[in-house]
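Q: Sequence in, structure out?
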Amino acid sequence: MANLLGKLIGIIINIIMIPIVLILAIPIGILKARRAQKSRLLFTGAEQTLLGKAQRTINMEEYGLLSPDRDLLEVAKCIESARCDYQIIKSRERFDSTFTDFLIPRINNCHVVDWNNVMRFFELSDYAQFEENFEFIEDSVEKLIQGNIVEDKLKVSGGIRLEEAEVDILAIVRDNKVVYLNSEAEHLFVIDKDGDEKLDGRVVNFVFSGQLEGEHIELFVAFDDSDSYTMFTLKMGIMERLNYVAQAIFKHFVAAGLKNIFSTTENYFIQYIYTFKVYRKNGKYFMVNNSQTQAYLIDDSSIMRDDVDKIKSAFWSKRNVTKNFV
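A: Exactly. Output:
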């Protein structure tokens, strides 16, 4: 009798729970569906409008009777290229950055004469991020033009610290010639168990390749250990962080009016090569990746690359007692 009563109570409880479970399951299912739909939506309505204008401008150049304004076409191609790259990245990995944030550094590198016309046509003033960045560019472009005089060396006292991005520049190489070497980087290094000076973090090579004149600029940027661990070990926000630093690099050199780095008449393609461990000895920086398939050896006048064994031998040799290796 007791068993029968227990089964009866269990059946009653199950019957009562069915509508409760259904009531709870429906909104949860709807919420999951909305989240899935949102994740599939790569572009907001405003971003889709922006992409549509860019595509129409490109089509006008290819099929129209009249060619579009050069500045508009330049930015339109930049937007379309960014769209392709963004979709590829989103399809391969988790990437939380919005398309607008992803696009900003690309547009910043466009060579545009009349920004006001570009802002009006693409309605970029609707984006707070664009408005802030373009106001900065317009206010600073004259300073950059005045400072864009080619010299053998970049005249900077001490190190170059990008406070906004929280990174340090160890070296700058332009067309395979060293134009800057950070001479005040002691605080970035620690002594390892073998007694060698080792960077407390990792280095990324930011490569800016000119599309018009073919100039090749490399900035070796040091990220601290915490930043490096988050990006390159946990694989969190790598491209978002690197894009942000690339934008900070451009801002820094414009604001400082530093010479012999970026040309105002060039359109740059940016590539990130990472990551490298860094050792320092007698005024030289030895950078090598984890697999030891790529390395650099840089002093204040020369750079060695490609031949990893030769570079390792040159750096660790007992004859490495002079400041320069060539």
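The longest helix spans residues 2-40.
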